[in-house]
Amino acid sequence: MIDIADIPKLLMRHLGLLICAPIVLIVLAIFFLSLRTPLYSSTSELLVEPEGQNFLVTETGAAGSSQSLQNFDIDSQTYIILSAAVLNEVANTLDLDNDPGLHRVGLRQKLFGTADRRMSDSEKRAATLGSLRDSLQASRLGRSFVFQISATHADPVIAATIANETARSYISQLRGNRSEALTRVSTSLGQQARDLRARVDAAEIAVETYKAENGLISTGQGGLVVDQQIQALNTQIAQARVDLEKAKTTYNLIAPLTPADVEAGGIPQTASSAVLTTLRIQYAQIAQQEAEAATTLGASHPTLRELESQLENTRRQIASELQRIKRAVKSQYEQAQGTLTALETQSTNLQSANSKQGQALIELRQLQSEADTSREIYEAFLKRSRELEEQPELNTNATRVLSEAQPSSSPNGPRKSIVALAAGLFGFALAASAIIGVAILRGQISSEQDLLRRTGAPLLANIPSERSRPSTNAHEIANRFFGASTDRSNQRYIALTRLAYALRQAYADERPANILVLSTDNSRDTFAFTREVAIQLHEMGEDVLYAAANQEKTKVDRDRLTSRSQISASGRDGIEFLTQIASPRSKATLTTTNSADQFIGSGLSRHLTIERIDTRRKYASHGALEPAADDFLIVDGGAASQSPILPVLLRHCDGIILVSSLGKTSIGSLDKTLAYLQPWRERVIGNVVLEAA
Fold first, then answer.
1. Each residue of 448-482: b (16+ CB within 10 Å) or e?
2. What percent of the chain has pLDDT over 90?
3. What pLDDT, on a 0 to 100 scale, did the predictor assign at position 250?
4. What's the CA gap between 62 and 76, in Å, rounded?
């Protein structure tokens, strides 16, 4: 995975693509705009009255009925505006069948020759309506009754004319359709009113005939005589039942009363009388006097005896009055019962006498109800029919044009500068996405942090690539444009010197030291870099032996760097092959001595090209390797996965330098190299990053 912090560096390594992609898209956008015919739009505003089909209201302008009958989907008017009837009228008025702006010839028609075929009138009109519908747009403003009609055309004047004519045609169609609907509904209502009139007459005749046949006599608004008698009798019975209940309640309250209850004041309101109230007061006064006398006088005192006699006499009077009241209440109760019984008997007799007319009366009421309903419906239809006969001559529709469309002074769409800017931004985003996506799919090392995290070793140097011709890399061009340093040779020299110092300091007390340089990428060439490090060490006063792995790819790249002819190594012995490589450079046969074999391991001379770094002859000479206490042996092991002697080199080395290239070395190759080095991971000194050429 790519860390977010690594994305800027990843994009900078592909700066050329990030610059070229926006430029290409900007050029394409400008080219498209130059070929595109500019279109102009004009908009007219239309107020639509939501009156609906209010044909069956009973009163013109009634506020209550308008809400229920005018509640329809106003949004459907957008489809009516763009209907074929409206557009056909617009096409006829403006002669749009011959308008080249609506019949533009496309690129496909020009290429395949279909533009010259003559169309019939119906085909031309269908094409005109289709193009006109595509160029028109009707929309409702929020939840209001205002609609906008926008027309698009290559000519701004024609665009405004089409928008205005569409609005006028819609209003004309709306009014014409409403007038036709009113006439049609009026005719239908008139015919239905005549049918209803016939039904009303038949119902009324049936009512009168039924009355005559069954002797149902009526007294005007009072109805039938029998009905009036039964109704009055029922009213009296209801009142008698109320009176009976009152008398019964009073009787039930008074019947259980005793003189003691009266003396205690427990008299119901319905049983109270002036005499009984007076007696109860008199009894209370005498009882009080007796109680007072009993406290001061003896039991046989005459005064006390007189008071007791008065008290007993008053008690008898209370009992006598109470009995009188009970008899009166009972008499009222019995009278109410008798009245109710008499009324019910009379009602029963009347109903029995009128039983034959009851069924006839029910049927009469049904007939009368049907006749009344038919008459009400007939009167409503007749009234509305006469109103609708007059409405077609009145223009009450408030639909109108609020503002007419005006020719536009600027074409549709964004300005060319905005389109170019958007194309550039899209190109940059597309290129950046492609770079990041490809990097994720390839699974390459994208940054130094990623490399350090996977290897666990520090970064020793970041070495720029060496070029013999002027660089055309977009990154360097950008650096030069922004004033950054472009001296790649100086940067490379500093990086190599830093690496040489790092090796000297790491093995200051461990001489001699064998340093193995391994490439984590099969396609990565480390020959020039490794040899330059050896030269830097020699120039610092160190005795350095340089050994390069005998691989065909290393041979080809080394010959390219030294501008020598390539020598085929196919099927040759290692010593003979190394000798032929070294001969053009040293003009002598390469000789490997026993001291060299002892230094790098027995039998390795046929797999390695050995040379002693000698600054007097600059890039070394191949000669006899005499025994010497060399400080460093720098071994270019090439790609770890392609070296046949990698185990021997790892066994005899003191330190390992891993060489990778950001954006080129795959994670799989790095993991495979680290797997080879697992037993010797502690010998890894660090990483060197080579910039891709």
1. bebbeebbebeebbbbbeeeeeeeebbebeebeee
2. 3
3. 77
4. 25
- Answer whether residue 125 is part of any domain: yes
Distance CA 399, CA 172 (A): 10
27-48 average pLDDT score? 84
Partners of 139 in the β-ladder: 148
The first and second tokens of residue 79, run together, are 């489809």
The mean per-residue pLDDT over the stretch 348-377 comes to: 76
198 is a domain residue: yes
Per-residue pLDDT tens for 255-296? 776 766 666 666 665 656 666 777 777 777 777 777 777 777
Q: Which residues of 197-206 are buried (b: 16+ CB within 10 A; e: fewer)?
A: bebbeebbee
Burial class (CB in 10 A: 0-12, 13-18, 19+), 73: exposed
How many structural domains are present in the chain?
A: 5
What would the pLDDT profile of 99-122 be if each residue is shown by its tens digit? 887 877 655 555 555 545 577 888
Q: Which tokens sit at 422?
A: 């958007």
Amino acid letter, 496: L
What is the H or E stretch that residue 140 is in?
A: strand 136-140
Which candidate, 246, 272, 273, places its Cα nearest to that of 335? 246
* Rg (alpha carbons) of the chain, rounded to whole number: 61
**219 lies in a domain?**
no
Query: Nearest 5°: phi and psi at 413?
Result: 85, 170
The string of DSSP codes covering 11-57 is HHTTHHHHHHHHHHHHHHHHHHHHHSPP-EEEEEEEE--------S-
Q: Which residues contact 470 (CB under 8 A, 6 or more apart)?
A: none
The residue-averaged pLDDT of 339-345 equals 84
Q: Does 491 share its domain with 511?
A: yes
Give every strand in the sheet of 459-463, ordered side by side.
Answer: 459-463, 684-690, 655-660, 513-519, 632-639, 544-549, 608-612
- Going by pLDDT thresholds of 50, 70 and 90, the confidence category of residue 60 is very low
Identify the pLDDT of residue 466: 64
Kindly state whether residues 201 and 233 are assigned to the same domain.
no
Distance CA 380, CA 387 (A): 11
Measure CA 169 to chain center: 38
Helix (H, G, I), strand (E, B) or coil at 139: strand
Which sign does the torsion angle of CA 497, 500, 506, 507 carry?
negative
Residues making up the chain, counted from first to last = 693
Q: Is residue 408 part of a domain?
A: no
Residues of the domain holding 206: 189-213+370-385
Whether residue 41 contacts residue 101, with contact meaning beta carbons closer than 8 Å, is answered with no
Identify whether residues 327 and 377 lie together within a single domain: no
The CATH number assigned to the domain holding 611 equals 3.40.50.300
CB atoms within 10 A of CB 677: 21
Rounded Cα gap, residues 32 and 278, in angstroms = 122
Checking if the pLDDT of 526 tops 70, the result is yes
Same domain, 279 and 178: no
Same domain, yes or no: 199 and 329: no
**Range from 139-153, 305-319, 326-340, 576-590 carrying the lowest mean pLDDT:** 576-590
Q: CB of 93 within 8 A of CB of 165?
A: yes
Are residues 176 and 304 both part of a single domain?
Answer: no
pLDDT at 269: 58
User: Can you tell me the distance from the alpha carbon of 604 to that of 625, in angstroms, rounded to the nearest whole number?
Assistant: 14
Indicate the pLDDT class of residue 595, thresholds 50, 70 and 90. Answer: very low
Model confidence band, residue 164 (pLDDT cutoffs 50, 70, 90): very high
Tell me, yes or no, whether 484 and 600 share the same domain: yes
In the predicted model, is pLDDT for residue 594 greater than 80? no
